[in-house]
Write a structure and sequence with these properties.
alpha/beta, six-stranded parallel beta sheet, three-stranded antiparallel beta sheet, 21% strand, globular, binds adenosine monophosphate
Length: 283
């Protein structure tokens, strides 16, 4: 596995690969890798000749300074994991490589309501930071395909919108959520959970699955009410539980409203904020 720290070096190397007609697959991450990240690498390997993974804890997408400070950083272990799964190139930039002085990296596109609901409502400026870093990384890596997880549902929806709006010739491939045995969606933040909280957080996924199982019996509003009751335990602070159209991210009033419906939630457990979602209808 080749490791690059300088943008100019990886750009040069990728240009050489492109001259040899290699198909580049790209997996951007913030590190503290787990099986969810590795599943993206695995899919990327199956669908492209060369897999590039980046690890960069992007400061501009953190709306809480403390969250950025606490974010787990395990670069050595990550590098070993990437080696083992056969990643070809690791891009490990410092902030100055991504945001060089004098380069305007902001992405100014109209997202309509896409960044105003759900995560966007609770994490001001988060998606502006996500678009900024992904656009900059795409400019550097110039991949044919970009691999992202369904875990961050609104994130891939917004990045898809950005790719289309800016006419970026990269295809987005969305990969399913990898979970722990008890259903908890894998996340780099899970290691920050104290043991007592780790035991109760599978309730988040259980609640989403309950909604999926019972959707034909009741209205979305009734299911949200029931879901909130299930999540109403002293350890949880639910930021939102929503049932929306998977494309517009707008709430559905009936399960007949759309052919593509997803239930999403964000829950604070102590200092840790967890998100999860389940596609409840897709046909
Ligand atoms: P992050 O390092 O959290 O920025 O995530 C990097 C990529 O991995 C994003 O596209 C995430 O959606 C994806 N990802 C994170 N957790 C999971 C998971 N449990 N299953 C599948 N993909 C995931």
């Amino acid at each position: 596995m080749l490791i690059f720290k300088k943008s100019s070096d990886i750009i040069h190397h990728i240009n050489q690969l492109k001259k040899k007609r290699k198909d580049i697959g790209f997996v951007p991450t913030m590190g503290a890798l787990h099986a969810g990240h590795l599943s993206l690498i695995d899919t990327a390997k199956k669908k492209s000749n060369i897999v590039v993974c980046s690890i960069f804890v992007n400061p501009t997408q953190f709306n809480e300074p403390d969250d950025l400070k606490k974010y787990p950083r395990t670069v050595e272990k990550d590098t070993e994991m990437l080696l083992k799964v056969g990643c070809d190139i690791l891009f490990l930039p410092e902030a100055a490589e991504i945001y060089p002085v004098g380069l305007d990296t902001t992405v100014d596109i109209d997202l309509g309501h896409l960044d105003k609901v759900l995560e966007g409502k609770h994490r001001k400026g988060h998606f502006a930071g996500v678009m900024q870093v992904v656009k900059r990384l795409l400019d550097i890596v110039q991949p044919h395909q970009l691999f992202m997880g369904q875990k961050d549902f609104q994130q891939f929806t917004i990045i898809d919108h950005m790719l289309k709006t800016l006419n970026i010739p990269t295809k987005l491939v969305v990969c399913p959520i990898i979970r722990e045995e008890d259903g908890l969606a894998m996340s780099s933040r899970n290691v920050l959970l104290p043991e007592k909280d780790r035991k109760i957080v599978p309730l988040i996924h259980k609640t989403l699955e309950y909604i999926k199982k019972n959707l034909s019996k009741k209205t979305p509003d009734e299911m949200i009410k029931e879901g909130l009751q299930k999540l109403d335990i002293p350890e949880f602070e639910v930021e939102y539980l929503a049932i929306v159209d998977g494309t517009t991210l707008l709430p559905v009033k009936s399960f007949e409203d759309s052919n593509y419906i997803v239930a999403l939630t964000a829950v604070r457990v102590g200092d840790v904020r967890l998100i999860d979602n389940v596609i409840i209808k897709n046909k």
